[in-house]
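Deviations from the work plan: none for this task. Representative record:
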Amino acid sequence: MMFEKFGKISYVPNSKVAKFVEYLEEGKLTGTKCRKCGTLYVPPKADCVECLDDDMEWVELSGDCTLHTYTTIHASPAGFEDIAPYTLLVVDVKEGGRVMTWAEGIPEDELEIGMDLKLRVKTLDDGKLVYVAEKP
Ligand SMILES: [Zn+2]
């Protein structure tokens, strides 16, 4: 499988971490961990920034996270006009790392910095895969 199935809009068809999308199809959120130095990458990286090794293993994540910050987009970029306005979140993943995602079913006035959230895989109408954050 190629990387183009990830995200509402795919910017690249290929990636050294394309297996991330295969795991999404199985409903699994994953990161990579360097076998040499133990650094965890969420989102996944194919090469370790810390020790420059490429011996990485896949690690399944719980989906547990906390809200770091958020914003609501009213003037959307190309490709996202059909869902605007929408709320983007930046969440701290329990196991480590920080990712951007969408709020799913949470009105902006119910969001609080530091609140517990849960990431889950969502399949869009066209079959593409994303992950969203909802109340646990
Ligand atoms: Zn490393």
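Residues 34, 36-37, 39, 48, 50-51, 53 surround zinc ion (CB under 6 Å).
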